[in-house]
Protein backbone atom coordinates (compact mmCIF):
# COMPACT_ATOMS: atom_id res chain seq x y z
CA UNK A 1 0.00 0.00 0.00
CA UNK A 2 1.29 3.47 -0.91
CA UNK A 3 2.15 5.81 1.94
CA UNK A 4 0.18 9.04 2.43
CA UNK A 5 1.66 12.42 3.37
CA UNK A 6 0.11 15.80 4.12
CA UNK A 7 1.40 19.30 3.41
CA UNK A 8 0.20 22.88 3.19
CA UNK A 9 -0.64 24.36 -0.20
CA UNK A 10 1.87 27.17 -0.78
CA UNK A 11 -0.21 28.55 -3.67
CA UNK A 12 -2.86 29.84 -1.23
CA UNK A 13 -5.76 28.56 -3.29
CA UNK A 14 -8.99 30.29 -2.27
CA UNK A 15 -12.42 28.71 -2.66
CA UNK A 16 -15.75 30.44 -2.98
CA UNK A 17 -19.41 29.79 -3.72
CA UNK A 18 -19.91 30.56 -7.41
CA UNK A 19 -23.65 30.84 -6.73
CA UNK A 20 -23.15 33.50 -4.05
CA UNK A 21 -20.54 35.43 -6.03
CA UNK A 22 -22.73 35.49 -9.14
CA UNK A 23 -25.75 36.69 -7.19
CA UNK A 24 -23.76 39.41 -5.37
CA UNK A 25 -22.37 40.64 -8.70
CA UNK A 26 -25.89 40.68 -10.13
CA UNK A 27 -27.06 42.67 -7.09
CA UNK A 28 -24.16 45.10 -7.40
CA UNK A 29 -24.97 45.78 -11.05
CA UNK A 30 -28.48 46.74 -9.92
CA UNK A 31 -27.09 48.89 -7.06
CA UNK A 32 -29.31 46.64 -4.95
CA UNK A 33 -27.55 47.40 -1.67
CA UNK A 34 -27.63 51.19 -2.07
CA UNK A 35 -31.08 51.31 -0.47
CA UNK A 36 -29.74 49.56 2.64
CA UNK A 37 -27.16 52.29 3.32
CA UNK A 38 -29.77 54.43 5.03
CA UNK A 39 -30.93 51.68 7.39
CA UNK A 40 -30.74 53.31 10.81
CA UNK A 41 -29.98 51.19 13.87
CA UNK A 42 -27.91 52.20 16.89
CA UNK A 43 -25.02 49.75 17.03
CA UNK A 44 -21.30 50.42 17.12
CA UNK A 45 -19.53 50.12 13.76
CA UNK A 46 -16.00 49.11 14.76
CA UNK A 47 -15.29 46.47 12.12
CA UNK A 48 -18.70 46.26 10.45
CA UNK A 49 -21.43 48.73 9.54
CA UNK A 50 -25.17 48.14 9.58
CA UNK A 51 -24.93 47.78 5.80
CA UNK A 52 -22.35 45.00 6.20
CA UNK A 53 -24.59 43.17 8.65
CA UNK A 54 -27.60 43.46 6.33
CA UNK A 55 -25.48 42.23 3.41
CA UNK A 56 -24.42 39.26 5.53
CA UNK A 57 -28.03 38.41 6.33
CA UNK A 58 -28.97 38.59 2.65
CA UNK A 59 -25.98 36.38 1.78
CA UNK A 60 -27.01 33.87 4.45
CA UNK A 61 -30.53 33.73 3.02
CA UNK A 62 -29.45 33.15 -0.60
CA UNK A 63 -27.03 30.47 0.61
CA UNK A 64 -29.80 28.62 2.42
CA UNK A 65 -28.43 29.08 5.94
CA UNK A 66 -31.02 27.55 8.25
CA UNK A 67 -29.50 29.04 11.40
CA UNK A 68 -27.32 32.06 12.14
CA UNK A 69 -24.63 29.58 13.23
CA UNK A 70 -24.42 28.43 9.59
CA UNK A 71 -22.90 31.84 8.78
CA UNK A 72 -19.66 30.75 10.45
CA UNK A 73 -19.38 27.72 8.18
CA UNK A 74 -20.92 28.90 4.90
CA UNK A 75 -19.98 32.61 4.78
CA UNK A 76 -17.04 33.49 7.03
CA UNK A 77 -14.51 31.36 5.05
CA UNK A 78 -15.69 32.88 1.74
CA UNK A 79 -13.46 35.96 1.51
CA UNK A 80 -14.06 36.34 -2.23
CA UNK A 81 -17.80 36.93 -1.75
CA UNK A 82 -17.11 39.19 1.23
CA UNK A 83 -14.70 41.38 -0.75
CA UNK A 84 -17.32 41.86 -3.43
CA UNK A 85 -19.32 43.58 -0.69
CA UNK A 86 -16.40 45.67 0.56
CA UNK A 87 -15.53 43.46 3.53
CA UNK A 88 -12.35 41.49 4.18
CA UNK A 89 -14.56 38.75 5.59
CA UNK A 90 -18.15 38.31 6.73
CA UNK A 91 -19.01 38.99 10.39
CA UNK A 92 -19.66 35.90 12.48
CA UNK A 93 -22.95 34.77 13.97
CA UNK A 94 -22.49 36.65 17.28
CA UNK A 95 -22.45 40.00 15.43
CA UNK A 96 -25.61 39.07 13.52
CA UNK A 97 -27.40 37.83 16.65
CA UNK A 98 -26.79 41.13 18.43
CA UNK A 99 -27.81 43.06 15.33
CA UNK A 100 -31.18 41.32 14.97
CA UNK A 101 -31.94 41.61 18.68
CA UNK A 102 -31.82 45.42 18.41
CA UNK A 103 -34.40 45.82 15.63
CA UNK A 104 -37.38 48.01 16.46
CA UNK A 105 -40.60 49.07 14.74
CA UNK A 106 -38.81 51.82 12.80
CA UNK A 107 -36.47 49.25 11.26
CA UNK A 108 -39.45 47.19 10.11
CA UNK A 109 -40.87 50.25 8.36
CA UNK A 110 -37.48 50.85 6.71
CA UNK A 111 -37.26 47.29 5.39
CA UNK A 112 -40.85 47.39 4.16
CA UNK A 113 -39.97 50.58 2.28
CA UNK A 114 -36.88 48.93 0.74
CA UNK A 115 -38.98 45.94 -0.34
CA UNK A 116 -41.62 48.22 -1.84
CA UNK A 117 -39.12 50.29 -3.84
CA UNK A 118 -37.25 47.25 -5.13
CA UNK A 119 -40.56 45.74 -6.21
CA UNK A 120 -41.76 48.90 -7.95
CA UNK A 121 -38.46 49.27 -9.81
CA UNK A 122 -37.88 45.65 -10.80
CA UNK A 123 -40.96 43.43 -10.44
CA UNK A 124 -41.65 41.42 -13.56
CA UNK A 125 -45.34 41.26 -12.63
CA UNK A 126 -45.70 45.02 -13.08
CA UNK A 127 -44.80 44.80 -16.77
CA UNK A 128 -47.03 41.80 -17.44
CA UNK A 129 -49.65 42.27 -20.16
CA UNK A 130 -51.54 39.22 -18.89
CA UNK A 131 -53.79 39.41 -15.83
CA UNK A 132 -51.70 39.46 -12.65
CA UNK A 133 -52.88 36.96 -10.04
CA UNK A 134 -52.04 37.75 -6.41
CA UNK A 135 -52.68 35.13 -3.75
CA UNK A 136 -53.32 35.93 -0.08
CA UNK A 137 -52.54 33.36 2.59
CA UNK A 138 -51.28 32.90 6.15
CA UNK A 139 -48.76 30.46 7.56
CA UNK A 140 -47.82 29.76 11.16
CA UNK A 141 -44.34 29.91 12.66
CA UNK A 142 -43.99 27.90 15.87
CA UNK A 143 -41.84 29.40 18.64
CA UNK A 144 -40.84 26.56 20.96
CA UNK A 145 -38.14 25.97 23.54
CA UNK A 146 -37.57 29.61 24.56
CA UNK A 147 -39.46 32.72 25.58
CA UNK A 148 -40.27 34.64 22.42
CA UNK A 149 -41.70 38.16 22.44
CA UNK A 150 -45.40 38.39 21.57
CA UNK A 151 -45.63 34.66 20.79
CA UNK A 152 -49.15 33.39 21.45
CA UNK A 153 -51.07 30.14 21.17
CA UNK A 154 -52.81 29.80 17.83
CA UNK A 155 -53.62 27.43 15.01
CA UNK A 156 -50.48 25.54 13.96
CA UNK A 157 -51.15 22.31 12.00
CA UNK A 158 -49.85 19.25 13.87
CA UNK A 159 -48.54 21.57 16.62
CA UNK A 160 -51.59 21.91 18.81
CA UNK A 161 -51.14 24.03 21.93
CA UNK A 162 -47.87 25.60 20.74
CA UNK A 163 -47.11 29.31 20.77
CA UNK A 164 -45.84 31.26 17.79
CA UNK A 165 -46.60 33.79 15.09
CA UNK A 166 -48.75 34.15 11.98
CA UNK A 167 -47.17 35.28 8.71
CA UNK A 168 -49.64 36.93 6.31
CA UNK A 169 -48.45 37.13 2.72
CA UNK A 170 -49.41 38.42 -0.72
CA UNK A 171 -47.63 36.58 -3.54
CA UNK A 172 -47.62 36.56 -7.36
CA UNK A 173 -47.42 32.90 -8.35
CA UNK A 174 -46.80 33.37 -12.07
CA UNK A 175 -43.61 35.38 -11.55
CA UNK A 176 -42.76 34.02 -8.09
CA UNK A 177 -42.54 37.48 -6.50
CA UNK A 178 -43.44 38.58 -2.97
CA UNK A 179 -45.83 41.53 -2.82
CA UNK A 180 -46.32 42.17 0.88
CA UNK A 181 -46.03 40.64 4.34
CA UNK A 182 -47.16 41.11 7.95
CA UNK A 183 -46.16 39.26 11.13
CA UNK A 184 -48.48 38.93 14.11
CA UNK A 185 -48.84 36.90 17.32
CA UNK A 186 -50.09 33.33 16.86
CA UNK A 187 -53.65 34.06 18.01
CA UNK A 188 -54.21 36.52 15.13
CA UNK A 189 -56.84 35.51 12.56
CA UNK A 190 -56.00 35.80 8.89
CA UNK A 191 -58.97 38.05 8.22
CA UNK A 192 -57.56 40.74 10.53
CA UNK A 193 -54.75 41.37 8.02
CA UNK A 194 -56.90 41.16 4.91
CA UNK A 195 -57.39 44.92 4.52
CA UNK A 196 -53.65 45.55 4.96
CA UNK A 197 -52.77 42.96 2.31
CA UNK A 198 -55.41 44.40 0.02
CA UNK A 199 -54.14 47.99 0.40
CA UNK A 200 -50.50 47.09 -0.20
CA UNK A 201 -51.42 44.97 -3.24
CA UNK A 202 -53.71 47.48 -4.92
CA UNK A 203 -51.15 50.25 -4.25
CA UNK A 204 -48.48 48.33 -6.17
CA UNK A 205 -50.86 47.26 -8.93
CA UNK A 206 -53.03 50.37 -9.20
CA UNK A 207 -52.51 50.54 -12.98
CA UNK A 208 -53.56 46.90 -13.32
CA UNK A 209 -56.68 47.61 -11.27
CA UNK A 210 -57.57 50.54 -13.53
CA UNK A 211 -57.15 48.28 -16.57
CA UNK A 212 -59.19 45.46 -15.02
CA UNK A 213 -56.05 43.34 -15.07
CA UNK A 214 -55.58 42.27 -11.42
CA UNK A 215 -57.09 39.14 -9.86
CA UNK A 216 -56.93 38.47 -6.14
CA UNK A 217 -57.30 34.90 -4.99
CA UNK A 218 -57.86 33.84 -1.36
CA UNK A 219 -59.10 30.90 0.69
CA UNK A 220 -62.09 30.65 3.02
CA UNK A 221 -60.31 32.36 5.92
CA UNK A 222 -60.68 35.60 3.96
CA UNK A 223 -64.19 34.90 2.65
CA UNK A 224 -66.27 36.90 5.12
CA UNK A 225 -69.00 39.28 3.98
CA UNK A 226 -66.94 42.29 5.14
CA UNK A 227 -63.89 41.21 3.14
CA UNK A 228 -65.95 40.61 0.02
CA UNK A 229 -67.26 44.16 0.33
CA UNK A 230 -63.70 45.48 0.63
CA UNK A 231 -62.74 43.57 -2.50
CA UNK A 232 -65.70 44.90 -4.45
CA UNK A 233 -64.79 48.46 -3.44
CA UNK A 234 -61.28 48.17 -4.94
CA UNK A 235 -62.56 47.37 -8.42
CA UNK A 236 -60.17 44.42 -8.69
CA UNK A 237 -61.28 41.01 -9.89
CA UNK A 238 -61.27 38.23 -7.33
CA UNK A 239 -62.01 34.60 -6.54
CA UNK A 240 -62.51 33.81 -2.86
CA UNK A 241 -63.77 30.69 -1.14
CA UNK A 242 -66.81 31.37 1.03
CA UNK A 243 -66.21 31.50 4.78
CA UNK A 244 -69.18 29.41 5.96
CA UNK A 245 -69.37 25.70 5.15
CA UNK A 246 -72.94 25.71 6.47
CA UNK A 247 -73.81 28.36 3.89
CA UNK A 248 -72.16 26.16 1.25
CA UNK A 249 -74.39 23.26 2.32
CA UNK A 250 -77.50 25.43 2.18
CA UNK A 251 -76.59 26.74 -1.29
CA UNK A 252 -76.09 23.18 -2.55
CA UNK A 253 -79.72 22.35 -1.69
CA UNK A 254 -80.86 24.58 -4.55
CA UNK A 255 -78.82 22.64 -7.14
CA UNK A 256 -80.71 20.13 -9.24
CA UNK A 257 -79.05 16.79 -9.95
CA UNK A 258 -78.64 17.54 -13.66
CA UNK A 259 -76.93 20.87 -12.91
CA UNK A 260 -73.84 19.32 -11.35
CA UNK A 261 -70.80 19.30 -13.65
CA UNK A 262 -68.22 16.58 -13.16
CA UNK A 263 -64.62 17.50 -12.31
CA UNK A 264 -63.73 13.91 -11.45
CA UNK A 265 -65.43 10.98 -9.74
CA UNK A 266 -65.24 12.68 -6.34
CA UNK A 267 -65.79 16.34 -7.24
CA UNK A 268 -68.69 18.17 -8.90
CA UNK A 269 -69.45 21.88 -9.34
CA UNK A 270 -72.49 23.95 -10.20
CA UNK A 271 -73.17 27.63 -10.68
CA UNK A 272 -76.27 28.99 -8.97
CA UNK A 273 -78.16 32.23 -9.59
CA UNK A 274 -77.23 35.19 -7.40
CA UNK A 275 -78.72 38.62 -6.72
CA UNK A 276 -75.53 39.97 -5.14
CA UNK A 277 -73.79 40.91 -8.39
CA UNK A 278 -71.33 38.06 -7.84
CA UNK A 279 -71.17 34.59 -9.32
CA UNK A 280 -71.49 31.68 -6.88
CA UNK A 281 -69.89 28.32 -7.69
CA UNK A 282 -70.88 25.48 -5.37
CA UNK A 283 -68.53 22.54 -5.02
CA UNK A 284 -69.57 19.05 -3.89
CA UNK A 285 -66.73 16.72 -2.91
CA UNK A 286 -65.87 13.65 -0.89
CA UNK A 287 -63.98 14.59 2.29
CA UNK A 288 -61.14 12.66 3.90
CA UNK A 289 -63.67 10.94 6.14
CA UNK A 290 -65.56 9.66 3.08
CA UNK A 291 -68.55 11.94 3.64
CA UNK A 292 -70.02 14.38 1.10
CA UNK A 293 -69.00 17.97 1.86
CA UNK A 294 -69.58 21.35 0.26
CA UNK A 295 -67.76 24.61 -0.33
CA UNK A 296 -68.44 27.60 -2.56
CA UNK A 297 -66.53 30.23 -4.50
CA UNK A 298 -67.45 33.89 -4.82
CA UNK A 299 -66.19 35.81 -7.84
CA UNK A 300 -66.79 38.84 -10.02
CA UNK A 301 -65.03 37.26 -13.01
CA UNK A 302 -67.50 37.01 -15.89
CA UNK A 303 -68.70 33.69 -17.30
CA UNK A 304 -67.30 34.70 -20.70
CA UNK A 305 -63.81 34.62 -19.12
CA UNK A 306 -64.12 31.45 -17.03
CA UNK A 307 -66.94 28.93 -16.67
CA UNK A 308 -67.60 27.08 -13.42
CA UNK A 309 -65.14 24.27 -14.12
CA UNK A 310 -62.39 26.69 -15.17
CA UNK A 311 -62.95 28.74 -12.00
CA UNK A 312 -62.64 25.60 -9.87
CA UNK A 313 -59.26 24.76 -11.41
CA UNK A 314 -58.16 28.39 -11.33
CA UNK A 315 -58.86 28.66 -7.62
CA UNK A 316 -56.91 25.47 -6.89
CA UNK A 317 -53.81 26.95 -8.54
CA UNK A 318 -53.32 28.74 -5.21
CA UNK A 319 -50.79 25.99 -4.51
CA UNK A 320 -48.07 28.40 -5.74
CA UNK A 321 -48.24 30.41 -2.51
CA UNK A 322 -48.26 27.19 -0.49
CA UNK A 323 -45.10 26.14 -2.33
CA UNK A 324 -43.56 29.53 -1.52
CA UNK A 325 -44.22 28.99 2.20
CA UNK A 326 -42.51 25.59 1.95
CA UNK A 327 -39.50 27.25 0.30
CA UNK A 328 -39.38 29.85 3.07
CA UNK A 329 -39.38 27.19 5.76
CA UNK A 330 -37.26 24.48 4.16
CA UNK A 331 -34.76 26.54 2.13
CA UNK A 332 -34.61 29.97 3.76
CA UNK A 333 -35.11 28.38 7.17
CA UNK A 334 -37.67 30.83 8.56
CA UNK A 335 -39.11 28.10 10.80
CA UNK A 336 -35.88 28.36 12.79
CA UNK A 337 -36.43 31.76 14.39
CA UNK A 338 -33.18 33.75 14.41
CA UNK A 339 -33.88 35.64 17.63
CA UNK A 340 -36.38 35.73 20.48
CA UNK A 341 -37.11 39.41 19.77
CA UNK A 342 -40.31 40.06 17.81
CA UNK A 343 -38.95 42.85 15.61
CA UNK A 344 -35.78 40.85 14.93
CA UNK A 345 -37.92 37.98 13.61
CA UNK A 346 -40.07 40.42 11.64
CA UNK A 347 -37.03 42.15 10.13
CA UNK A 348 -35.42 38.87 9.12
CA UNK A 349 -38.63 37.88 7.32
CA UNK A 350 -38.60 41.15 5.38
CA UNK A 351 -35.01 40.38 4.33
CA UNK A 352 -36.17 36.94 3.17
CA UNK A 353 -38.91 38.51 1.06
CA UNK A 354 -36.48 41.06 -0.40
CA UNK A 355 -33.80 38.43 -1.09
CA UNK A 356 -36.34 36.09 -2.68
CA UNK A 357 -37.35 38.78 -5.16
CA UNK A 358 -33.67 39.38 -5.98
CA UNK A 359 -33.11 35.67 -6.71
CA UNK A 360 -36.30 35.54 -8.77
CA UNK A 361 -35.19 38.57 -10.80
CA UNK A 362 -31.79 37.00 -11.49
CA UNK A 363 -33.41 33.70 -12.45
CA UNK A 364 -35.73 35.41 -14.92
CA UNK A 365 -33.19 37.83 -16.42
CA UNK A 366 -29.58 36.62 -16.14
CA UNK A 367 -30.76 33.01 -16.65
CA UNK A 368 -33.50 33.91 -19.14
CA UNK A 369 -31.98 31.93 -22.02
CA UNK A 370 -30.83 29.03 -19.85
CA UNK A 371 -32.61 25.94 -18.58
CA UNK A 372 -31.86 27.27 -15.11
CA UNK A 373 -34.74 29.70 -15.55
CA UNK A 374 -37.16 26.80 -15.13
CA UNK A 375 -35.50 25.48 -11.96
CA UNK A 376 -37.15 26.07 -8.62
CA UNK A 377 -35.54 28.24 -5.95
CA UNK A 378 -35.11 25.11 -3.84
CA UNK A 379 -32.93 23.42 -6.47
CA UNK A 380 -30.95 26.57 -7.28
CA UNK A 381 -29.94 27.18 -3.68
CA UNK A 382 -29.53 23.62 -2.47
CA UNK A 383 -27.69 22.36 -5.56
CA UNK A 384 -25.81 25.38 -6.92
CA UNK A 385 -25.12 26.73 -3.45
CA UNK A 386 -23.17 23.62 -2.49
CA UNK A 387 -20.76 23.81 -5.44
CA UNK A 388 -17.36 25.01 -4.25
CA UNK A 389 -15.35 26.91 -6.89
CA UNK A 390 -11.65 27.78 -7.09
CA UNK A 391 -10.61 31.45 -7.20
CA UNK A 392 -7.67 32.51 -9.35
CA UNK A 393 -6.69 36.17 -9.08
CA UNK A 394 -5.01 37.48 -12.23
CA UNK A 395 -3.79 40.98 -13.00
CA UNK A 396 -6.99 42.44 -14.42
CA UNK A 397 -9.67 39.99 -13.41
CA UNK A 398 -10.61 37.11 -11.18
CA UNK A 399 -11.49 33.69 -12.55
CA UNK A 400 -14.02 31.53 -10.76
CA UNK A 401 -13.31 27.94 -11.75
CA UNK A 402 -16.26 25.61 -11.25
CA UNK A 403 -15.54 21.86 -11.28
CA UNK A 404 -17.25 20.12 -14.19
CA UNK A 405 -18.88 17.50 -12.00
CA UNK A 406 -22.43 17.61 -13.25
CA UNK A 407 -24.70 18.79 -16.02
CA UNK A 408 -26.04 21.41 -13.61
CA UNK A 409 -22.57 22.92 -13.13
CA UNK A 410 -22.12 23.10 -16.90
CA UNK A 411 -25.51 24.82 -17.30
CA UNK A 412 -24.55 27.28 -14.57
CA UNK A 413 -21.29 28.28 -16.28
CA UNK A 414 -23.00 28.58 -19.65
CA UNK A 415 -25.71 30.80 -18.14
CA UNK A 416 -23.15 33.11 -16.56
CA UNK A 417 -20.88 33.48 -19.58
CA UNK A 418 -19.45 35.87 -20.44
CA UNK A 419 -20.56 38.39 -17.81
CA UNK A 420 -20.38 36.56 -14.54
CA UNK A 421 -17.78 33.78 -14.52
CA UNK A 422 -14.69 35.63 -15.70
CA UNK A 423 -14.95 38.63 -13.42
CA UNK A 424 -13.10 41.95 -13.58
CA UNK A 425 -12.79 43.18 -9.99
CA UNK A 426 -10.56 46.26 -9.96
CA UNK A 427 -12.36 47.66 -6.90
CA UNK A 428 -12.51 44.22 -5.37
CA UNK A 429 -8.74 43.78 -5.57
CA UNK A 430 -8.16 47.15 -3.94
CA UNK A 431 -10.15 46.11 -0.85
CA UNK A 432 -7.95 43.14 -0.14
TrEMBL record:
Keywords attached to this entry: Membrane, Transmembrane, Transmembrane helix
Domain of life: Bacteria
Domain Transposase DDE: 42-416
Segments crossing the lipid bilayer: 343-362
Official protein name in the record: Transposase DDE domain-containing protein
Species annotation: Geosporobacter subterraneus DSM 17957
Lineage: Bacteria, Bacillati, Bacillota, Clostridia, Peptostreptococcales
